[in-house]
Structure formats: C-alpha cells, structure tokens
Design a protein that fits this description.
single chain, 498 residues, alpha+beta, five-stranded mixed β-sheet, 11 helices, 12 strands, 57% helix
C-alpha cells in the first residue's frame, strides 16, 4: 500500500468516525434532554397535585375503590404517565395503570428518595410497575396525613412513571424524519468533503515524495554513472519544509556520490592499468632470467664439482617461473576486470571439454597417485562459453584439487543440465577446507589449506579461485564451494544455457 493511499484512507476514516461520533453525541444529547424535560414536567405536576390534595393517604383509606378513579382523572392531561400511591415501604396501594399488580407489589425506594432530593440528579430512572424489565423516568413526592404522628412523618409517596405505550413509534418516526435524513445528508456531505480534502492534501503533500522516489528508482535502475543524469531533473524544487530539506540533502548526497564514484573510477582504472603495465614489463626480464638459469642448470648438471651450484640454480629457476606465472595471472585478472572486456562465446559440449582437461592433467595425477576422471554421460551438455577462459577456470580448479589432495584421493569432473542452466563440478576426496575459510576462499591473494606442493603460478598465491569467480561472473553465472574437513571439497560453476 502506497503512502498516498494510507494518508487518504486515514483522512477518510477520521472524517467518517468524526461524523458518526457527532451523530451519536446528538442522539445521546437528545435522549438526555428528553429525560430531563420529562422529569422536570413530572416534578412540577406532582408538586401541584400535592399542594392541592394534602390528604391523599386519608382519601385512599376512606374510599379505596373510588381513589383509582380519582388518580385517573389527575392524569387525563398527562396520557404518557402513570400515577401510583405508595406506602412508606414502597408497596403500591393504588395506580392508574391497567395492569393487575400482585398483592404486596413494591418498587425500589432508592430512586424514590433520590427524586425527593431534587439536587441529587438532573433526572431519575426508576421502576415501572407495568414494565419491570425496563427503567423509566420517575418522580415522587412525599405525602403526610392530616394528623401528623411523631413516629410516622411520611405516610406514603405519590409516584409518577413517565413511559411510552403506543407513542414511541410515532416519536421516533418524527425524530428520524426531522433529524435522521438531514443527519444522513450531513454525513454524506462531510464524507465527500473529507474525501476531496484528502485527495488535495495527499496530492500536495506526497508529490515531492513521489518525485524523490522516482529519482531513487532511476538511480537503482541505471546505476550511479548513468542514472545520476536522469535523477537530477526528477528531484522536486527545494522548499523550506521537511521535503525541501530532504531534497537538498538528497541532492548533496548525490553530488558527493558522483564525486566519489568518479574518483573511484579513476583510481580503479589507474590500478588496472598499473597492474597490466607492470605485468607486461616484468614478463621479459623474468623470461630472460629463467632462460639464463635453465642454461646454467643444464651446463652444471653433469659436473659433480658444481652440484651445489646446480641445486641453487634449480631453486632460483623454480621461483622465477612461479614469479612469472604470478605476474601473468595478475595481468590476466586485470584484463578480465576491464569494463570493456568482451567474451568470445561458442557453443560447445562441456563433457568433451572436461575430457580434454582430464587428459591434460592425467600424467600429473598418476605421478602423485591420484585418480582423475571425467564422469561420462549419455547426452551432451551444451553451453555457450568462451572456451579459452572457461577451460582456464576449470583447469585452475583441477590444479587446486591435485595440489591439496594426497595419494589415494580421487578427483572427479562432471557436467549436467539442471533446469535453465548447467552445472560444472570439480569434486575431490581430499582433506577438505575448514568452515571459517570458506567465506574467504574466493578473495584475491587468500590461500586456504596447506599445500602438499610448493606454490606455483596463479594457483599458489590466492589468484586461481579469484580468476575462476571472475570468469563465472563474465558468463553470467556464479561459483560455489561446499566442503567438510576430512570429507573432500566440491566446487560448482553454475552457468545459464542462453
């Protein structure tokens, strides 16, 4: 969900909840107003009746049958109320209602006493003898006898219940007609207004953020070198708000990154050019040195008096050849790192290529007591590769395996099709590689495991696997290694078939 949609939904939901809360508040206020008005009218009515008839308890005792009719006459002008005469314990003595109350029926005295104390609440809810499952607005006044007794200050209560019989539907219909439709229209107007307001706010607030997002997307899609030119015009104008500060900071960061990127490109180009030139300049003297050492070694080979000189010449020759191989590997790696370097892919059967590599290293493997074999297959494994480079990568892996394996080990070369790619694997049963060295195995100039042979060429100075990794990346693939000490090593190059 985008930020725009989140903000719009938040404003819309806030407006809707606010409108519903206003309507609910109005309805509650209307209900409270109705209760207070009803209570005040009932209290005034009871006050007038009590002041006019101060002997109602005596009237009921003298003529109980006629007293009900007397009460009904009192509420002729209050059709939505019922009057009850209560004794001091709250028992109903007489009523205007049509319901037949059981003998001894009593109402709760708490609301009665609360109503007598008019300052206790703006209105009082109490028992409705005809509907004991619901509260109603009630009012009460105390009654006394014509002859006041010391132990009987209150002879009873005149109890009024305000309720609705057939009237509620009409009143609520009137309320809905007068308030419901306008309220609904008001809600719709508020929701529509807040929706429009949300659209305007979202558009104005998030437009700079959207432009910043587009600028970042351009950088991510085209990279810093090409995307910086496209990202600049996409940036929003700098303002004084937070988005303007973010835009200014982003522009400054982009400028800094461009400067650093240009510096890094120049340094990287200088590094590659320096390594390439150094490699080229060192090859000739190293080759000449190796030639002179070979001549001396051949000249002193048959002379017992020069045996020590011959041995030293052999050591120097071996080291010179290793240095020449390292210089060549550095030059090759610098060439592979050049952005302008292009592969020369050809379609080839990888199994045939692995057979050729196995035959090339077979003599060396036999000399060290190692079994080297390429796994056979019924079907060719075809891939588009630069044959020279890929053969160099697999040869480095085989050279590593032979270097670190001892007598009796086995090295296997295999190629197979897997999904939309091919796997080329070089596996050995040698001593394996410790787990803490696997993460650095493809780092340049990093050497894992202790070789059983002297270091030679690129594979003895931590460049062999770096070259393998770079060749795999140039082919659009990747290289992975799995190993466990004592159980051998397995290096896999994954290549796409396209």
């Amino acid at each position: 969900m985008s930020v725009r949609l989140k903000i719009a939904l938040t404003i819309f939901a806030t407006g809707l909840v606010t409108a519903l809360a206003v309507i609910a508040t109005v309805l509650l206020a209307f209900q409270r107003f109705e209760h207070e008005t009803t209570y005040q009218r009932a209290t005034r009515f009871l006050g007038r009746v009590a002041s006019m008839y101060d002997n109602m308890v005596d009237m009921h005792q003298r003529q109980p049958d006629d007293f009900n009719g007397f009460l009904r006459n009192l509420v002729l002008f209050e059709p939505d109320t019922q009057l009850y005469l209560l004794d001091p314990a709250g028992t109903v003595l007489s009523s205007t209602g049509s319901a037949q109350l059981p003998p001894g029926f009593a109402v709760a005295l708490g609301p009665v006493k609360q109503s007598i104390n008019q300052r206790a609440a703006p209105y009082v809810m109490g028992d409705d003898p005809e509907r004991m499952d619901a509260n109603a607005v009630i009012a009460a006044v105390p009654l006394s006898r014509s002859t006041i007794r010391a132990n009987d200050p209150v002879a009873g209560y005149l109890y009024l219940v305000a309720h609705r019989d057939a009237e509620p539907a009409t009143r609520w219909q009137a309320l809905r007609a007068s308030a419901g439709r306008p309220a609904l229209g008001l809600i719709l107007a508020i929701v529509g207004f807040t929706t429009l307001l949300a659209a305007l706010v979202v558009a104005s607030v998030t437009r700079p953020l959207r432009r910043l997002t587009d600028a970042v997307a351009a950088l991510s899609r085209k990279g810093l070198q090409e995307g910086a030119a496209d990202a600049g015009p996409l940036l929003p104008p700098a303002t004084r708000d937070e988005f303007g500060q973010l835009t200014t900071a982003f522009g400054a960061m982009l400028s800094t990154l461009q400067t650093q990127w240009d510096t890094m490109r120049r340094l990287d180009h200088f590094r590659r050019e320096a390594v390439s030139n150094l490699s080229h300049d060192l090859r000739s003297p190293l080759t000449a040195t190796a030639g002179c050492l070979e001549t001396l070694e051949a000249r002193w080979a048959g002379d017992p008096a020069r045996a020590e000189d011959s041995r030293l010449a052999g050591v120097a020759l071996r080291n010179t050849r290793n240095a020449a191989g390292l210089v060549k590997a550095l030059g090759d790696l610098a060439t592979l790192d050049e952005p302008s370097f292009q592969l020369r892919p050809e379609q080839v059967d990888l199994r045939e290529l692995l057979d050729d590599i196995a035959m090339r290293f077979n003599e060396r493997a036999v000399r060290h007591g190692i079994v080297l074999a390429a796994s056979p297959g019924d079907h060719p494994v075809v891939a588009h590769i630069d044959i020279e480079l890929f053969e160099r990568a697999v040869a480095n892996l085989v050279d590593n395996a032979l270097k670190f394996c001892g007598t009796g080990c086995r090295v296997t070369l295999a190629a197979e099709t897997h999904g939309d790619g091919v796997h080329v694997c070089v596996a050995d049963t040698g001593p394996g590689i410790p787990a803490d060295e696997l993460a650095h195995l493809f780092d340049r100039f990093y050497q894992a495991r202790t070789s059983v042979e002297p270091a030679s060429a690129d594979t003895g100075r931590g460049l062999g696997l770096a070259i393998v990794k770079r060749i795999a990346e140039l082919h659009g693939g990747r290289v992975a290694v799995t190993s466990e000490p004592g159980h051998g090593t397995r290096v896999t190059i994954d290549l796409p078939t396209g």
